[in-house]
Amino acid sequence: MLRGASADALADLDQQASGTRTLEEAATLGSQLFGVATVVHRDAALRRALTDNSVEGEARTGLARAVFGNALAEPALKLVAEAAGRRWISATDLPEALERLAVAATVRSAGAHGKQVGDELFAVKRMIDNDVALRGALADTSRSVEDRRKLLLGLIEGHTLPATTVLVGQAVNRGRGTVEAALQDYLDQAAEALSEAVATVHTAHELSADEQSRLTAALGRQYGKDVQLHVVVDPSLIGGLRVEIGDDVIDGTVVSRLDDARRRLAG
Questions:
Q1: β-strand partners of 229
Q2: Ramachandran angles phi, psi of 196, nearest 5°
Q3: Taking all residues of the chain, what is their mean pLDDT, rounded to a whole number?
Q4: CA angle 161, 185, 12 (to 5 degrees)
Q5: Non-local CB neighbours of 106 within 8 Å, separated by 6+ positions
Q6: pTM of the model
Q7: Rounded to an integer, what distance in angstroms lies between the CA atom of residue 90 and that of residue 118?
Q8: Rounded CA gap, 236 and 85, in Å?
């Protein structure tokens, strides 16, 4: 989570990045920013040089242009140079910000289908969560990153939007934490790019379209923004709902109420 000056820098840069004229430009911007974020994250010396607040911002901007000038289209180069000239609380905030900008640009490249990207990311994450063998294969560091990437992309080929495919592939390439954790990060960031919130609803039974619509509307009123609803059916809950949205958990399941009753009796 970026804070202070780093959060301010990200907000300003995101405003600039959202001005891409076409969906193709947004896709290119996202792809190139992912590449720069990876380089900056892995190269500690470069990362320190680009975020050294004792050096004038203009000099850091010039360094960014010198390093990446031959590899990037002008929109990406301009954004990376601008990012290098900003103040960052931590050196690692720069690659994190670039990655977040890349996610947002990739989601925007889906145009009117942006919300579908979030739905597809959730579906891929659930597929991994529910398949022990697949989860193990994706976590197996004896296999190359490219091999693991091809494995996962092969399973979704032809079933997802191009933007989703890019984000799923990047979740494997990320190399930090699990693929599932990366997908959750991208899922949250995708909703943020669309000015929405993500709500994961755990229920003992399937919700009807009307129930989902009413729950989405209620959460939207409570949180003051549109909500992407993702439903997980878990019969072990017996009944009721558990809603996870951001850091909030609203637990109204039968299992939760039974646990509360047991604790009161034990006390």
A1: 199
A2: -120, 170
A3: 92
A4: 90
A5: 26, 27, 30, 31, 34, 117, 163, 166, 167
A6: 0.82
A7: 29
A8: 52
- The Cα 29–Cα 105 span in angstroms is 6
Q: Which two tokens stand for residue 91?
A: 């050196």
Task: Let me know the angle formed at the C-alpha of 222 by 103 and 5, rounded to the nearest 5 degrees.
Answer: 45
Q: Which one-letter amino acid corresponds to residue 247?
A: D
Q: What is the pLDDT of residues 43-87, one digit of tens each?
A: 999 999 999 999 999 999 999 999 999 999 999 999 999 999 999
Q: Which residue has the tokens 């180069």?
A: 77
The token pair at 143 is: 């296999």
Residue 45 φ then ψ, to 5°: -65, -45
Distances (CA, A) of 37 to 92, 107, 168, 174: 10, 17, 16, 10
Residue entry with tokens 């009117």: 112
The residue among 249, 241, 251, 232 whose CA lies nearest residue 126 is: 232
pLDDT tens-place string over residues 151-196: 999 999 999 999 999 999 999 999 889 999 999 999 999 998 888 8
∠ CA 179-183-189, rounded to 5°: 145
In sequence order, the 6+-apart residues with CB closer than 8 A to the CB of 69 are: 77
- Tell me: the pLDDT tens digits for 132-144? 999 999 999 999 9
What's residue 140's pLDDT?
Answer: 96
Torsion sign over Cα 229, 248, 172, 100: positive
The span from the CA of 128 to the CA of 181, in Å, is 11
